[in-house]
Amino acid sequence: MTIAFPQRLAARLSPDNFVLATDLDGTLLAGGVEGRRQVRELFSAAQAGRRLVFVTGRGLESILPLLSDPTIPAPDYIIADVGATIVHGDLRPVDELQQETAARWPGSQAVLKALAGFPGLRRQSVPQERRCSFLASEESVTPALRAAVDALGCDLLLSAGCYLDVLPRGVSKGAAVLRLAEAAGIDPATIVVAGDTLNDLSMFETGLRGIVVGGAEPALAERVRKRPLVHIAGEVGCDGILEGLAHHGALVPKADPAPAIPSGTAELVMVYHRLPYDEVVEDGVLRHRRPRSPNGIIPTLLRFFAGARAGSWVAWSQQACRDPEGFVTHVHVDRERYPNLQAARIPLSADDVDVFYKKFSKEAFWPIIFSFPDKAEFNQAHWERFLEVNRLFAEQTAREAGEGATVWVHDYNLWMVPAFLRPLRPDLRIAFFHHTAFPASDVFNILPWRRDIIGSLLQCDYVGFHIPRYVENFVDAVRSFAPVDVVDTAPCAPRFLTYGCALGVDSMTTAIDVGGRRVHLGAHPVGTDAGMIERLALGPEVARQTAAIRDYLGGATGIVSIERLDYVKGTLEKLQAFERLLEQHPEHIGKVTLLNIITPAAPGMEIYESLRVEVDRTVGRINGRFSTLNWVPVRYFYRSLPFDEVIAHYAACEVAWITPLRDGLNLVAKEFVAAKKATGGSGVLILSEFAGAAVELHGAVLTNPYDGKAMTAALHQALTMGEDERAYRTGRMAMIVAEHDVTRWGNDFLAAVEGAGATAAVEARAA
């Protein structure tokens, strides 16, 4: 189709008012990093006079991941299926155009039936609408085949000598561009088309300005060479687009380009919502204190900076406002232990922290992560604040990282950091670790912002989870809106349970290709500091506390339960199962005591208040029913305990009862095992099948916290288990906890990240 436009089409374009209608693969999605960045900025939201149209042979479904990719500019319109699908950038159909095309399409089944007898045609298994695509050779496109397609009222398009499309009559990329221009009121004189294969030829035959990018099919360049409004670029992909836009007058050099964010010197950047120390104000002076818990993740992460490694720790610091007077961004964490590590503090107001962390993260994300969608509350304004905070983290990270540095982002609070960081620093190796569960895709997809989050995580080079099940859940979530090629897998046994466990899987995906990016994946259950627990457990203070707890129990078997106040922890279900035990097995009355220790929620977390009231009521009912003058069945403590006192409870009790409804991992289980091993005792660990640790701790008594009968049976089994079996189970779990401690977790994770980077480098050289 050749359309003659007025002579004014020959005039140069205005840099502030033009439309780029471009092919994707080999064109917009190709080229160097800097060229792609410039094209992205060219069509940023601030440039309202410039519009972008994706024009592709892909089906609309396969374009979806690009819409969440922060390195690719967002389109105003999408022409897909070689012109058979025309939608707005937000995926709303351009109704009149879609209806016209649908009216001319006989239907896929009619096409397949008509062409069933022709040899050499193999239908492509790709998403598509209003067209049928085949793999075929040029020899298979016979006059008879063309006649059969013509009889259907369709057109036949063969590109690259092997891709054959049957399309509604008159449908092509070029025709779709012209129809869209008419429907949207776009002046054809402002349109520039770009492509790289014969599949794009129809766009250049419209008479519009055009750009054939470097590396295009020679046959395309040859067919358009004599067209005066088509520029054949020497540069590839986006670089060729920029060259062509400059040729047509749509691009002029910036007189004063915005300065790029300068890179820092850190070889490793930790991006964590918390600082590696506690900030306290004493006598009006801000002071630093080591974190209260010595057994957290933070001490392990700090060890990576114990040598000469230059590092930065990016975290928030709560201030009166985001730009406090005299605020010091960089602070040494510990000059003696970590001489080259600085904390890069991001000032957030109390309202920022309240909305970003206490409200949005806990009210929108937390219920979804742990599969309680009925408790989720979605607030668009809170999401916008979440994005603001994540952008601040990404920008500060970009300033800290040295060239080619590794950035390790931690947890769902910072899900969107990779999306903001990758365009700023494409040179970085970005790793992400989830310290929580990752839900099944049908639950995750309840989130209104699921595509944004998945798109952000796909900017990472490596994404880690506690266990293989969460890896597979993530892959399914990606697969629910983007085509996924599984590059590599690994067996889960014998490291992880596979069958007979709610969270077990037999194999795990370790690398995927999505939208032209390769992302490596892995399972890394966080460990505990077994050595530190042993030192505490054998110390005189813990020994004294252990003896005091045993005296307090008065000869009764101690069942310890330590957890935060949270509906995901299954506290009520546990108390109800304990009550049922005393009803069904009265022989335990007076002989067992449940030490139920609940750590209060953070101040301002109103979502948990009703749960606390119900727990209080249930404990009161049980004690009222079964207490005697010499014995109380439930000893309930609603407060935080120092870690040495926690270890003493582990050492003093024979059973640890850890049965959350959902839990990413649960370190309490590992701490209990480490404490029993350190003191030379044996114990029984009752563990929920829905805690991540269940697939790792071979030897735990697994139970379903949703099944009250099973919960009571598991507790009875633990209380009546023989000493030989208890010792065997404890020893087996102790070896796992000792071998896979928190130090190994950190080392293995970084080694996996570096291994993924090395693999990527080899693949890049091979390409």
Task: Give the topology.
Elements: E1 18-22, H1 24-28, H2 33-42, E2 50-55, H3 60-67, E3 77-80, E4 85-88, H4 95-103, H5 108-115, E5 122-123, E6 132-135, H6 143-151, E7 154-159, E8 163-168, H7 173-184, E9 191-195, H8 201-204, E10 209-214, H9 218-224, E11 230-236, H10 237-247, E12 266-271, E13 278-282, E14 285-289, H11 297-302, E15 311-319, E16 330-334, E17 338-349, H12 350-369, H13 380-400, E18 401-410, H14 417-424, E19 429-433, H15 441-444, H16 450-457, E20 462-465, H17 468-479, E21 485-491, E22 507-514, E23 517-523, H18 530-537, H19 540-553, E24 557-564, H20 571-584, E25 592-599, H21 609-626, E26 634-638, H22 643-652, E27 655-658, H23 667-678, E28 684-688, E29 701-703, H24 708-720, H25 723-739, H26 742-766
Parallel strand pairs: 1-2, 1-9, 2-3, 9-10, 10-11, 12-15, 12-18, 15-17, 18-19, 19-20, 20-23, 24-25, 24-27, 25-26, 27-28, 28-29
Antiparallel strand pairs: 3-4, 5-6, 6-8, 7-8, 13-14, 16-17, 21-22, 22-23
- What oligomeric arrangement do these chains adopt? single chain
Total number of β-strand segments?
Answer: 29
The strand line-up of the biggest sheet is 16-17-15-12-18-19-20-23-22-21
Helix content: 25-40%
**Helix/strand structural class:** alpha/beta
Strand count, sense and barrel status of the largest sheet are: 10 strands, mixed
Shape: elongated
Mean pLDDT: 91
Radius of gyration (Å): 31 Å
Q: Could you name the ranges where pLDDT drops below 50 across 5 or more consecutive residues?
A: 1-8
Strand residue content: 15-25%
Distance N to C terminus: 37 Å
How many individual helices? Answer: 26
